[in-house]
Amino acid sequence: MNAEQINLGSLQVAAATPEIIVGLMACLILVVALYIKEESSSGFSYVLSIATLLCTALVIALDFSTEPVSAFNGMFVDDPMADLLKIAICLITSGVMVYSRQYNIDRGIFQGEYYVLGLFGVAGMMVMASASHLLTIYLGLELMSLCLYAMIAFYRDDKLATESAMKYFVLGALASSILLYGMSLLYGLTGSLYLGEIRVALAGTEQDNVAVALAVVFIVVALGFKLGAVPFHMWVPDVYQGSPTSTTAYIGAAPKIAAFAITIRLLGGGLEELHGMWMQMLIILALLSVAIGNIIAIAQDNLKRMLAYSTISHMGFFLFGILAGTETGYSASLFYVLIYAVMSMAAFGIVLYLANSTEESDSLNDLKGLSKRQPWIAFLLLILMLSMAGIPPTVGFFAKLSVIQALVNAGLIWVAAVAVVLAVIGAYYYLRVIKLAYFDAPEKETEITAGPTMTAVLSVNVLLILAILPWVGSLIALCNQVIAKFVV
Amino acid sequence: MENNLLSILIWLPILAGVLILGTGGDSRAPLARKLALGFSIGIFVLSIPLYTGFDSSTAAMQFVEKASWITSFNIWYSLGVDGISMPLILLTTALTVIVIIAGWQVITERVAQYMAAFLIMEGIMIGVFASLDAVLFYVFWEAMLIPMFLIIGIWGGPNRIYATIKFFLYTLLGSLLMLVAFLYLYNKSAGSFSILDYHDLKLGLKPQILIFFAFFAAFAVKVPMFPVHTWLPDAHVEAPTGGSVILAAIMLKMGGYGFIRFNMPITPDASHELAWLMATLSLIAVVYIALVALVQTDMKKLIAYSSISHMGFVTLGLFVFNSQGVEGAMMQMISHGFISGALFLCVGVLYDRLHSREIKSYGGVATPMPIFAAFFVLFAMANSGLPGTSGFVGEFLVIMGAFASNPWYAIIAALTLIFGAAYTLWMVKRVIYGKVEHDNVATLEDVNSREIIMLAILAAMVLVVGIWPNPILDVMHTTVDNLLQHTAISKLP
Fold first, then answer.
1. Do A402 and B149 touch (CB under 8 A)?
2. For the whole prediction, is pTM greater than 0.95?
């Protein structure tokens, strides 16, 4: 690239304002924190990180795109879908940071760098949300993943956390290399790294083209790894259980939204012409995820591990919408993943709430008699579990409804029927949590260290699941709108 | 007020429930009780205009409300009642008052939550009967499970956890298949979730049969019909008295209501095609389950099986497709609501005193508790279908309707008059009459004024409906005729 080609005006840098704000603030916080007294520097980084995320969300919301804007010579796109995803990522991550405070203080990992890593991770996710080029996807993904590895390993005195950081790193690197391999095959076949050009080049490809099929397999496997879909789910339970819960909450929420972004940009965008090919693969991945996730979750006695298997099954549901391959389906998946991220954040928020300086309280038996000890938290847990199980009138039902409707609409009635039966199996372990909290007698008293801010944020988070009900229609309509405008 | 009466009836109890939850711990239990009673009576009074303002000359939906809710799926907040749902709503508001009175002294732990659960459930149940949009209906239908799940699980008997999880999962599985049927109909009807639109939708026989079975899965579990009835005895035995009353008196009716609102008008050809199956399963319930009831040693279990047997009359009456049958089924639902509710309350009265539901722990109760014995015998007579009580009207009409369709149905169904009398009166004989054999029975105290009030209300209803059923039959007559005309027209394309 020579000097004449670089023209800042044509780069449309303004389209990347949110990423730039988050990236610069992360650097700034890192540097300024060095000049602040040690005892107050962590608090400074914490408050400023949350403020950055909230301001970024506000900036995006005020300048919400109505039409897609292509930037950086087409490597980056700022469309309504990207804006919606970025707002969700910022808000959810800031909530997770609030939840993590007391937990991190109790474990001595309440340090400025933890939150700076969190900000860089968010920048990575935002790049993923806007990627329209294979390299941009990869860069965003790696930026996010490296931050996640470090955030797990942050609790370095804990053997389990170190182990799960290693495991996550090795498997994450493997998945990234598989993704790169698939991308290189795509580049070889189409001669382009731009998703839009790939889509055009692939038009009219025959369904039995082996080389193309190989590329699609690599891409789908890599996405399966990142989402944690069966049979590429092995890392999920170990990482969820082993990580410090504050990091698990981070991993479990916003990165799923970013994963949605790259899944839809790759499969629904660049590879849309090959829908017939990847649909078959996703049906298997999705059904196995829902089945194995739900069935194995029943056997868990650790809350974090149970939630990990629940994530696997939710990712299966999320894939149902994608595999329908229609606008309705993509929109349903988008709605699902947003709702899921809110529920997942709340679930780990409750685990964080119950943990205190001496113990994690993440065993299912620790929930016994919660409604007598902590009636309000038990009530929040009740709503949350019902929503995760997809029981009306919670919003989780509408998420499942829209996905199943997309399946029926695409003519996949048998998949819908199987999904529904598996959802009943899933309901069992959520009900068991309610049973422990409400029907069993308390075995011990737990000391709660969480402050009023956390209680307030957690309450808002969970009550949103019920209170959004009259406006569910508007949210679904918004998802439809942004998907309709989504371009590669 | 007139225009959004149904919304008020749905949301006022729910808001009242939330308010009562807000009273907090058991130190303020008296306040929670008074608020619950006040609200439940107020809601009952509010529901009376539904009857007085009802136009029984039309089969169209009345008290209609419609507002857009989820526009991208064309889901509406759409409410309305006809001659079939309106009496069931009144039944709900009336029985909630009784249930609140029944839990007055008995429930001493988590009182506010108990009272709130019943009020919230009242609102949700009214929502089920009033919804005209399939998704709205489904939301209420499933939401109803949550308070009942908690009521059985928190205030239930020793084996409550098994019973409540079985109850929840059993009904959830059936309901989800109904949801798939709704989505199929949604796509078939070019994007409508309106139940009334489905009534006019043309469907081939094969899809009709599949949809029929999907609905059957939801409603047969709820009724419950043989062979998917096994959750009911467990749930009834473990539930607290109030829970049993609501379960038997209202929740079971939702299964029958579902058959009337969904199966018959949406899939009329499949309904005619499969009428033999419905009649057979109903008759098995009527005869076989009655025999099962005969050998029970636990009073609550006996009444639970008796409920299944009586609900067999409802499904039989519906699927003989004539006006005596359908009106008889409706009468049977309403009357069974009073009678089974009353019998569960009677068992509750005894259980509160001796903490046993076993028949053999009692005997000669009439000696220490003469007033109670009078009520118990009256309800037992009504349960066995004595003329002059409400139990007779429904059974008689159904048998008449069945006779017109197939005399054998009528002959087999009439056996219940013998079996029903056998298991009910035999229980009465062993519990109420005979010598006082246990010392603790001899010292039993008779019913107090609170218990007399609730039993007297129900006794009055049983007798009034039994002697003069016309006020109820009149409001449903046009709707039932319209339904039968509708089901007589084939919907095959």
1. no
2. no
